[in-house]
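Data card: per-record layout.
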Amino acid sequence: MMKQSLLKIVASGLLMTLTSVSCVSAKTDFNEVGRQMVIMLRNSHYERFAFDEDLGKRFFDSYFSHLDPSKQYFLESDVEMFRKKYGSNMHQLLIDAQSMTAAKEIYAVYKKRANQRIGYAQELLKNEAEFSFDGDRTVMLSRKDAPWPENEAAAKQVWHDLVEQALLSESLRRENIAALAKKQGKEDPLKGKDAPGKMISLRFERILHGINDVTDEDIADQFFSAVAKSYDPHTDYFSKSQMERFMSGMQNSLVGIGALLQAEDDGATKITGIVVGGPADKGGELKLNDRIVGVDTLNKGTTEAMEDIMFAKLDHVVDIIRGKAGTEVRLKVEPAAGAPGEIKFIVIKRGKVELKDELAKAELVEMARPDGAKRRLGWISLPSFYADFKDWKTRCSIDIEELVLRLKEEQAEGIILDLRGNGGGSLEEVRRMTGFFTGSGPVVQVKNTQGRVEFKDSSHPKPIYDGPIVVLIDKTSASASEILAGALQDYNRAVVVGDTSSFGKGTVQQPMEIRRMMPFMSDARRAGVLKPTIQKFYRVSGSTTQLKGVESDIVLPSLLDAFEIGEKYLDHAMAHDSIRRAPGFRELNRGNLFLPTIKSQSQARVTASQDFKYIAEDAKRMIERREKNELSLNKELRKKELDEAEQRTNTRNEERKLRFSKVAEEDKKTFRFFRLNLDDLKNKELVEIDRKKDKESYMHMAKDNVADLDETPEWPSSLDPVKREAISILADLVESTERARMAGALQNNNS
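The structure for this 751-residue chain is written out next.
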């Protein structure tokens, strides 16, 4: 008995040793990763597509579109050759764990073509003087719907046009910047820079490095992502490093040095921002505009350990600079203030960096009423529905709750919830947050692939705030943002204001670790994560947010409405449909939003607003340009267009300077703004906002001499047209509510 136990212990120890050795020496088998990924897709994706030849064709087309979306690298013959070989059996190669051969073979041709095309472009740029820019030729703005070049001659023509367009645009840009600088009595900020042709050539060089410097893991990442997105736009594959970045974003913190990086055309990585109080800021050696050219990620201090990062992908540079808290990274730096060729080595101890700029924040807006009394309104900005899934200490719902309660304490009579640019996040945070304003009741319905519908209830029996609300959205408000905006709209709890509609993402994704499905004893450390769509969102009223999004009750003119932004423009987008209303859903009386009144008042202001007229004019031009889909390669014609645009800008700026000065004077009598960031919650009294000072409170930013030439006046009181109008709409809503309450005319909330 003892002998058998001893043998088991020895065997266990041997197994552990063998497993350890195997993991060290082996590499992740991405053929097997692909196999397990498609099995997971078949079993878990909302759309149970038949795993057949048609799906295989979709995988094939998606991979080519992923590699070459503008159809400027591959030839038509390349695509057709591979279509005959792999076009109808890509699904079978995946399930047979043989797909990486096809993925790498296709990538090899892509790489070959990229080197040919960019090599040709760089040769053209060596003789940039040969471009006359005096013909009547045009180039397509978007080649998304263009055919693949049918032969080498056609491909060269595509790239000749591309180079000519890039060279003409850059030359005109420089001439314009030089003229602006001269007009303002300043030195040309681009003086001494590489010639346009050289600079464009270096940009191509960075693109080429990104294509050439790939591993099997990089190829697998691109291929598997294309396969996943063949199901729908939001099903995706994440490599190990991509998943780490995603989780950092959800937590709104990361471990690194606290610096904002920018890829330079010449291959270096420039420091354009330093987080206040972060590791780099505390160290004090790294400065704005310093250029990183090498990274020793473990600070070994040897020549071999210092990785040359010239022309490296920015994501890769970020990954090797980040690391575990308390460890050191050694940077090879060209100091901004140093002599040409000077090199400096800087060691920084990594630490946790809070992305405070991405956290919820608020303002208290104090307005003078016509009768001289003060009206107080709250403005809450939520960039994303963030949550730390590890310990749940960082949660946007907790932050929003504290901000709302403080605004109540400050006697805010109404609140604007700004969800512009909010791409979504944690569903649990939405469920909790909606209850702050609605109390108990369903928040969202979720349907799975079997057709089973569940509804998510609010966790708050009573609202913590029951006053007037305006929700501000735009075309980039997506997913969780649409659930919150849709729920508040369905309950008739808020007036939705902004673009014609939100993004239109009405699907739920769930990250699944592929390593858990890998065969026993295999090296699964870099297997990555599949994020399949497993459910569909439906509003409590029964309509999905998919495709249509949430439509604004009051639409404001917007440039985003002129772009092809939204779910309906994405490949393989799922359909819109409706189900029954959620059980227990009882909306409030819509009459208590006074929509006819406040909509009419808003329309009158928008019609009279010169800035909204400018936005509408610009949107119309952008739509016309997009539909025309061509750009002239004639310099005189392009210069004429630019001169007209500049004259239009100058005329607007002159008009705005006069008008803004008057508005600013009126604003001094009308508005006071008080800062309410999360750090301000502990303060007994809120302090007035100092916009310029607050810009530097989170991050020191490098000066942009080109941007400084822009003479467009700043918005009075930092209120752009949308923010100003949203405040006016809320004030109207508060006023109407107040009058109705005083007259005893608020309608019964039982619909």
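Known properties of this structure: The chain has a mean pLDDT of 91. The chain is about 40% helix and 15% strand.

See the next section for split statistics.
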